[in-house]
Amino acid sequence: MEMFLMGLCLSMLGVAAAALAFGAATRGEPGRAEGEIQAKAAEAPPLTVSMGTPRFFAAGTGLPPHQPVPLDVLLLQIERHVRLEQAAAESFINQPSSASLHSRTMSPLAH
Amino acid sequence: MTSGLPELLRGVAESDAAAILSLGSRVHLQSGAVLFSLGDDADTLFLVERGRVALTLPLQVGGRDEDVLVEERQPGQTVGWSALIPPHRFTLKAAALVETELLGLSRAALLDYFATRPEAGHAVTRNLAAVIGQRLQVFQAMWLREVQRVVDHRSA
Q1: Nearest to B99 by CA among B12, B24, B33, B3
Q2: CATH number where B110 lies
Q3: ipTM above 0.90?
């Protein structure tokens, strides 16, 4: 009986110690993560977009994922892309063929 | 205006072209000024006489709307054909890229004139169909090129 009670007490102590250790570990993480996120948000320039996200024409952009591009640079790239694509489309209309429809483009947004 | 008639009046008798042009009123835009916005009522068709007009659509970039160039119109070209095509709402935004002059032709004035001169109405309608057809063909080809890239990207 004494042995059983001693075993029970030791087990309860072990569970309590494990619970305390788990609680301490999980309390510490969010605080550090939030601090890091806030610090990164403060450092990040406000007008950039991640080119890794397929927001434009769904296809890959050819740039490494999550590389921030200044907004004005991205808008210029889009404008150039549209002009190049229009020129390619007009060329197709003048001489319709599968080859002219799928001619390569110099636009960086398409590679 | 560039030499010759604007694209909308090609094939129209000279007297009719002059009469149609006389129906218009001049619009002067400073660089960056908006001619019309997406969703506005379209009751006036414009002929670009001088300068350049950017036709844009809003693209969501970084969580906010940014005007993205869709087409650029130059002297002699037509802007705002939604004025003659139901439901008479502009489906793009138009803004001057540089100091620009246009001739605005109201739908009511044009339709009244075409009622008295059906030949002129027919020629203008044919020219308008060419402008609309060109837009359709260009965007059809652009769309297919983008879809092809998506297919290539997914199957790579």
Answers
A1: B33
A2: 2.60.120.10
A3: no
